Amino acid sequence: MPPKPVSAAARHAADLLGVRIKAGRLERGWSINKLAERAQVSRVTIMNVERGDLRVALGTVLDCATLVGVPLFYEDERRLAAEAARGRAPLVGKRARTSATDSEVDLDF
Question: What is residue 78's predicted lDDT score, i.e. its pLDDT?
């Protein structure tokens, strides 16, 4: 199956993030191998991250950005967590049924 086409906006965002990650790495004086070691990925993966390759897992890219000090959304991590929680809150509904922890559990085997 051919790869899914990507919007120009997504392509530009990936390119920009890759450039910023590389700049952050160089500002710290880290080699590609040093960042790869810290991110627990291969040297090739770091090279792909810095190129803006959209095939790299999002978590890996975000880890690399965090390691080299690229701010993601907000520099204050608590604000980011609060925004994420607020954005997710309307999607969380009540359970359709109760779980075992909601009622008494008979532990007498």
Answer: 78
